[in-house]
Specification:
367 residues, alpha/beta, 2 domains, four-stranded mixed sheet, 11 helices
């Protein structure tokens, strides 16, 4: 495994300390260098820890689209820093106000399902009149707030689980299932769903974590397992198709996942495959928990039917390492996300606490 930055800037590079797993002790997926955005290239994990320096809007959009950076909170930070980068580029290249607006809209639209990206762009844009430094300061504040929110989400979630499953905990630690990556690679702090799992582990309440591999880019097996290894949390990686069977065989006590957007009625958009986990949990009678910052709830999106679902490159499922694995005439249906109905969510954990709607048809509180 190597740790390096592309392009190399020796005066700005600090290689993080690594443990026996090869994962850094601390992870910063998004930082501002003073001239641009430094991104931990998550497409290269777990083999290599590579940081990319991006200084132009085209590079930001490409990095978001290729999942160099991903995860709702991290995308929010990239959106905010992206506005600062666009402002610098506009000054340098003499853009018109219309060209600048088009550039920030391209950043906002690079991943349409995640509301955090759009919110980051919007929040940073509010500070443009005060200059680039003010935009960067606003983006910095978003990352600080995200780390604080992560800690609160972890505490609220673990407290709820401890109360809800107190009888089960009396028989020993819990077996947890999670889908996709929701840890520090996806956030400024310990993460959302994975932050809860970390807190459960700190309390001695985790026996084993079942990590769905998460198709098509394997965020679970490449990223979540990498973080759990670094934290010393026992885990196994399983194919997505095994999740429902694992739950129905009684091998899981609860599932904890994140969210990219939550509609006003409580429907949840998350990485594709999440709704199958929720259905299996409902059938098995075990808690299905969603963890996300409160601003992931989008009051302008009435239901899950209104959430745009990103369709990704067909080659992600039709090919493997550049080699075609499906017949030449086969097409692909490759949604990046699916929508879990609110009626399947037992608990929504945000930094403000835990919501258990008595009537699942009622909107999630947005104030």
């Amino acid at each position: 495994m190597g740790i390096h930055v592309d392009p190399v800037r020796d005066d700005a590079v600090r290689s993080p300390a690594s443990d026996h797993s090869g994962a850094p002790a601390t992870v910063q997926p998004v930082t501002w260098t003073g001239t641009g955005i430094r991104l931990l290239d998550q497409t290269r994990l777990p083999e290599d820890v590579v940081y990319l320096d991006v200084t132009e809007v085209d590079q930001v959009v490409d990095a978001i689209s290729r999942l160099v950076v991903r995860g709702a909170p991290a995308l929010g930070a990239v959106g905010a820093y992206g506005v600062a980068l666009a402002a610098r580029q506009a000054q340098r290249d003499g853009w018109s106000p219309e060209e600048f607006e088009r550039a920030t809209e391209r950043i906002r639209a690079a991943r349409p399902t995640a509301v955090a990206l759009s919110l980051g762009v919007r929040e940073a844009g509010r500070h443009l009149d005060a200059g680039v430094a003010a935009v960067v300061a606003a983006a910095d504040q978003l990352t600080i707030q995200d780390a604080q929110r992560n800690r609160e989400i972890a505490r609220h979630g673990a407290d709820w689980i401890g109360g809800r499953l107190s009888e089960r905990l009396g028989r020993g630690p819990l077996r947890v299932l999670t889908h996709c990556n929701t840890g520090s690679l996806a956030a400024a702090g310990v993460g959302t769903a994975l932050g809860i799992i970390r807190e459960l582990h700190a309390r001695g309440w985790v026996d084993l974590v079942h990590v769905d591999e998460t198709r098509p880019l394997l965020q679970g097996s490449r990223l979540t397992a990498w973080e759990l290894s670094a934290a010393g949390i026992p885990h196994v990686v399983q194919v997505d198709g095994a999740a429902a069977g694992t739950i129905l065989r009684g091998e899981v006590d609860l599932a904890v996942v994140g969210a990219d957007r939550i509609a006003a009625n409580g429907d949840v958009a998350n990485k594709v495959g999440t709704v199958g986990v929720a259905l299996a949990c409902a059938y098995a009678g075990i808690p299905f928990i969603v963890a996300a910052s409160h601003d992931t709830i989008d009051p302008d999106t009435a239901t899950g039917a209104d959430i745009p679902i990103e369709q990704r490159d067909p080659d992600e499922v039709l090919s493997f390492r550049g080699a075609r694995v499906a017949p030449a005439r086969s097409g692909a249906h490759n949604p990046a996300f699916d929508v879990t109905p609110a009626a399947l969510v037992d608990a929504l954990v945000t930094e403000r606490g835990v919501t258990e709607p008595a009537d699942r048809r009622r909107p999630v509180p947005t104030t």
